[in-house]
Amino acid sequence: MYKLVIMESPTKAKTVDSFLGKDYKVIGCTGHVRDLPKSTLSVDVNNGFKPKYINIHGKSDIIAQLRKEAKGVQSVILATDPDREGEAIAWHLATVLGLDPDAACRVTFNEITKTEVLTQIAKPRPIDMNLVNSQQARRVLDRIVGYKLSPFLWKTVRSGLSAGRVQSVTTRLIVEREKEIEAFVPREYWTIEAELRAARKKINAKFHGDINGKIELENEAQAMQVVDACTDKEFTVTDVNTSVKSKSPAAPFSTSTLLQEASKRLGFQSKKIMRIAQELYEGINLGSNGYHGIITYMRTDSLRISDEAAREAEKYITSKFGKEYYPAKRRIFKSDESAQDAHEAIRPANVTLAPDDIKPHLTSEQYKLYKLIWDRFMASQMKNAEIETISADIRCGDYVFKSSENTVLFKGYLLVYDDADDAGAMSKLSSIKSGDVLNAEAITPKQNFTDAPPRYTEGSLIKVLKEKGIGRPSTYATTITTIISRNYVELDKKLFRATPLGVATVELMKKNFSQIVDYKFTANMETSLDKIADGDDTYEQVLTDFYGDFDTTLEEAQKHLKENKVKIPDEESDIICDKCGRKMVIKTGRYGKFAACPGYPECKNTKPLTGGKTTTDKPKAEPEKTDMVCEKCGAPLVIRDSRYGKFYACTAFPKCRYTKAIREDIGVPCPKCGAKLILGHGKRNTVFYGCSNYPECDFSSWNRPLDKTCPKCGSMLELNERKNEVVCSNKECDYKEENE
Length: 740
Hints:
Elements (H helix, E strand, L loop, with lengths): L2 E5 L2 H11 L3 E5 L5 E2 L7 E2 L5 E2 L2 E2 L4 H11 L4 E4 L5 H14 L16 H8 L7 H28 L8 H19 L4 E11 L2 E10 L2 E2 L5 H11 L4 E13 L7 H12 L3 H13 L1 E2 L5 E2 L14 H14 L34 H4 L5 H17 L4 E12 L2 E12 L26 E13 L8 H11 L7 H10 L3 E4 L2 E4 L1 H13 L6 H16 L4 H20 L12 E6 L6 E7 L2 E5 L9 E5 L2 E2 L9 E6 L6 E7 L2 E6 L8 E3 L2 E6 L6 E6 L5 E5 L8 E2 L2 E6 L6 E5 L4 E4 L7 E3 L2
């Protein structure tokens, strides 16, 4: 008789199973098995906010399998992810399997390594109901806000909209930055750079001011006054200062700093970063060494690392780089007061697995992210860098110019993680001393204008969310994905821009539900959820405190629907209506954006948009030539288009009416029978993928099958070409990723 271990991910289950041996069986449940139904509120606001859960649609087979597997085993161990969400999933699993949550049935793994798994599996504990209640409170809060506010938005803004608690505040950040940009008035200022010659070296010095202090040059006249006064004059070095500063490395990654840095350095979106990090945590096939999780849990705001990890880092650094690269005293980083310290910082699970050593076993994306995490962690345990700074004051008459440079004396942690933007090359200023006279080869004035506040990138937005206490590590990526999908904001060259819909919705929310979009209120709510997790507050009390004011505010807003009615301004395009000559506007319909004439209903002209350009008025495509010949008459075949899709047609038409459906081999075996999969064309140029062994095998899919397996459940992956997403062909598995 064996022990049954249930995890969320089939991939992680496979890794853990390889560590535990024959006394255990490890299976995956693919995430939540119960949730609130979508069709109703399912929260009894008059009876302690009791939620009514149902088994998730599509999970019945998995639940049946779990119940069957749990019968007759020695014990059931719930090993879902080590966070509030994972604790809640464990509780839901215990409910559907009839397990006692107070029994020792729960274990968590901070890293998926053999040592960690064997250590934790030996000491199961009861389910932590404080963590479960904290997750339930978040879920119910979001359900109440979404379910109660969405109808208000339908009546006042647009049908089909939905409201979210954290998403609304995040959208407000982007909207207010957009308003700052619109209101910004550039201010002119001038800079002057002098190119000076000292012996054989060129030194660049920037204008600072005069002997009385710093001077701001506001216009060309002021700048030219300085240039004229310094032209053909001597420049004299009046002061040279040398100092050495010690530069400390950054802390190992938390979720927010990983999202910021990977966004900046690798250009990855937050959703993608978390997906790759999940893969690295759950387990990578390292060839003969088997499956291993190679990073610790990736949803954390702690900067703590274990003593064992610190000792491993010390051993690696001293043996690989030398004792001089390890500090005299172990470096310890302090987490924010708001940080949940249940997990360590994000670090390599085994520091000896250097990125380049395991590169053959990683995808390009996995390697880049793992290297970023490994380098940052190793640097955090290394000695400070020593940087020499030389600064010089250089006078020309009463005007002062300044020059400075930095030189790395000792690389320290920069050996593995170079973040020293101020580290220069060979020193030039070291060759000058006070009293030296320098010749000016050029004095160049330059007109500048102050910049508007920059639009948020994903990294800078997450930084602000973290600073304001909005959301938690597990919610950042989901929040950003949601506000994009709801068309409240859009990404333009990796910069967030508020849409007219987002602006109008935020203004409406500020007017009627100021608490919901208030930064401090949202941050305080996160603190309240933390208190539930710590046992310092209760689920019912937190929800009661929120709901009273919210319900009153909503009731008042419902009385003024007519005054709150909002018209979303249309986005004007450069497309001219070919029927009436007006400039067309961009509208959004159920199938996406399209150009429409603003003269509706007098003019009902519309045009589809593709990449911002209209797709109308295209000449009829010429038939595509092929090397094939007609089986009936021997004439060449061409590929033609019709309303029902592409097909082969005989060029001898109408004498010969031979046609043949296009069946293109896509080079992927059928997951059902192993025969070739082919691409076919259906009605209105739609394409589908089917088995060449039809009708013996009935496999078909609208998504393009890929010769890859799902990292979660092992089924075939497919490309949803309309959404540009890679999804699992197993409808019970929720795995998906952005297609590159």
